[in-house]
Specification:
heterodimer, A: mainly alpha, 3-stranded parallel beta sheet, B: mainly alpha
């Protein structure tokens, strides 16, 4: 924390802008600790509150605008890519789609506080046809809320953060090693879970060529279209004879799926 | 989803490799359901 604060004082607003821009663009550089440290530095009178909040908010909006444009141009494929590189690929797409569908532009207000949704919400808003003006309004307010919360928290606890900085300076490199080891263990566990999940699915998947051949041969298979209603915006068609079912309807409608034949599922 | 259906007793479940886009990009047949109500999206 001590080094982080020295770094921030020395390099100032440019670092903050680039860091937030990088995090929102999808780089694995968490901006929250930097915003907390910036808040603490405002409390110590070393940085300007208005400049910190404005620059960080603009950086977040600039990165989101890029994703929004990509989403508008490339549709749900951008969201699928983002979710593939996330640590929770199986729930990422569904969570994002459900939240955007449920709350519309208002979901952008709190999206930055929810892991996975933060980077995925802007491209989905673009793919879903949200107007640019509405997106900019809600994304700006959401970014302001996100930046403001962390800066305010850092400001309120600036004294404690100073003490923390002093303690961490005393512990020196050992604290850093401990934190890095904890982070590595967490990432390793998540990576293992993800690999097992992907491996299970890869074994069971049916290639498109095989499914087409089986349909042409008249094999008894039932196809279930599990795409989210927002995906129908990009293409409302289905595979031949597919039974359309929203992902959250499985609980109520699974009885409609026959048990005596192979079931082929697909989403985007 | 496949795991969820297996838990419901539907044992023969296979996800389509490449999903909808994989099928569409190969130029395989697709159908439009006239009864489908497409949402307007979060405008």
């Amino acid at each position: 924390m001590h080094e982080l604060m020295d770094f921030l004082v020395a390099n100032g607003y440019l670092v903050l802008f680039l860091w937030v821009l990088g995090e929102q663009a999808g780089l694995p550089v968490p901006a929250a600790p930097l915003l907390l440290a910036a808040g603490a530095l405002i409390g110590m009178g070393k940085l300007s509150a208005a400049a910190v909040v404005l620059l960080s908010t603009l950086a977040a909006v600039a990165a989101d605008l890029l994703w929004f444009r990509l989403g508008r141009r490339r549709g749900a494929k951008v969201l699928n890519f983002l979710c593939k590189v996330s640590l929770e690929p199986d729930s990422c797409v569904r969570t994002t789609q459900s939240r955007i569908a449920k709350s519309g532009p208002r979901s952008l207000l709190l999206a930055k506080f929810i892991p996975g949704l933060s980077t995925a919400a802007p491209p989905l808003a673009g793919a879903g046809g949200m107007s640019l003006a509405r997106f900019l309004l809600f994304d700006f307010l959401g970014s302001l809320l996100w930046v403001g919360s962390f800066v305010l928290l850092g400001f309120a606890f600036s004294h404690q953060l100073e003490l923390l900085a002093a303690y961490s300076a005393r512990l020196g490199a050992w604290l850093l090693v401990l934190l890095l080891a904890a982070l590595a263990a967490f990432l390793w566990r998540k990576y293992g879970q993800r690999r097992r999940f992907v491996k299970d699915l890869a074994v069971a998947r049916i290639p498109a060529e095989e499914l087409k051949a089986r349909l042409e041969a008249g094999d008894a298979v039932t196809i279930v279209d599990l795409r989210h209603p927002l995906d129908w915006l990009t293409d409302p068609r289905t595979l031949p004879g597919a039974l359309r079912m929203k992902p959250d309807e499985i609980e109520e409608r699974h009885q409609e799926i026959p048990r005596d034949r192979e079931i082929i599922l697909y989403c985007t | 989803m496949a795991l969820k259906l297996r838990a419901k007793g539907i044992k023969q479940v296979r996800p389509l490799a490449g999903g909808f886009f994989g099928w569409r990009d190969k130029g395989y047949p697709l159908y439009l359901d006239p009864a489908l109500e497409v949402p307007q999206g979060p405008r």
